[in-house]
Specification:
The chain is of the alpha+beta class. Helices cover about 35% and strands about 25% of the residues. It has one domain (about 5-175): Gcn5-related N-acetyltransferase (GNAT) (Aminopeptidase). Helix 1 crosses helix 2 (about 50-60). This is GNAT family N-acetyltransferase.
Length: about 180
C-alpha cells in the first residue's frame, strides 16, 4: 500500500469510549528511567532503526519535559510487569493554532498485538488529554489502516492538510470498506 501521511482530529474530548484492559494487563504512567523501555517498544514496531535511534529521538523530543511525561505517557504492562505498549497524551499545534492535545507515538510490541490492548490504551490516553485540552489530533499514515479504523471509531475525523490527503482517504475507504466523511 502506498504510504501517505495523514492527520486526524477529534473536535472535542467528551464521550470518550472506554475499554478495560483484558486480564492480566494494566496501564501505568511513565516513571523516570522509562525512556529506554519507550525506545525499545517504538523500535520493536519499526518506528526507528533500533532502540538507540529511538532513545535519541526521545531525548530530543521529550528530554526537557520528562516531568510532564509522568502524567502524559502511558505504558501497558503484562502479568510480569514488563512494559509491552505505550502512547503519549501530548500536545501540539495545527496550522499555527493554539496548543491542543495530541495522541503521540502509539505502539504495542508485535508479540502482543491483536490481544485487544489498543482500544483501552487509546481510551486511557484520551482521558488524560481531556484533563488538559478541549480537543485532540494525531498523525498517522495509510499503512496504519487498522489503527486508522480504530481512530475513526473513537471519533477522530480526517483533517485535510495536503493535496495528497484526498488520495490517502480514498485509498482507505477502499481498504477499510467504509465511507469516510471528508
Amino acid at each position: 500500500m502506498k504510504r501517505i501521511p495523514l492527520t486526524m482530529i477529534r473536535p472535542d474530548l467528551g464521550n470518550i469510549p472506554q475499554y478495560t484492559f483484558p486480564s492480566p494487563y494494566r496501564v501505568r504512567n511513565y516513571q523516570p528511567g522509562d525512556e529506554e523501555i519507550w525506545a525499545e517498544i517504538e523500535a520493536s514496531v519499526g518506528e526507528f532503526a533500533d532502540a538507540s535511534a529511538a532513545l535519541e529521538h526521545f531525548n530530543k523530543e521529550f528530554g526537557s519535559h520528562t516531568h510532564e511525561m509522568e502524567s502524559r505517557c502511558l505504558f501497558i504492562e503484562n502479568r510480569n510487569g514488563e512494559a509491552i505498549g505505550t502512547t503519549t497524551a501530548w500536545y501540539g499545534a495545527l496550522q499555527d493554532e493554539e496548543k491542543i492535545g495530541r495522541i503521540h507515538w502509539v505502539a504495542i510490541r508485535p508479540d502482543y498485538q491483536g490481544q485487544k490492548l489498543a482500544k483501552p490504551l487509546l481510551g486511557a490516553a484520551l482521558q488524560v488529554l481531556a484533563g488538559y485540552h478541549p480537543r485532540a489530533y494525531l498523525t498517522t499514515q495509510t499503512t496504519s489502516y487498522q489503527a486508522i479504523n480504530m481512530y475513526l471509531n473513537f471519533g477522530f475525523e480526517p483533517l485535510l492538510t495536503t493535496p495528497e490527503c484526498m488520495e490517502g482517504w480514498s485509498l482507505l475507504e477502499s481498504v477499510l470498506k467504509r465511507k469516510i466523511i471528508l
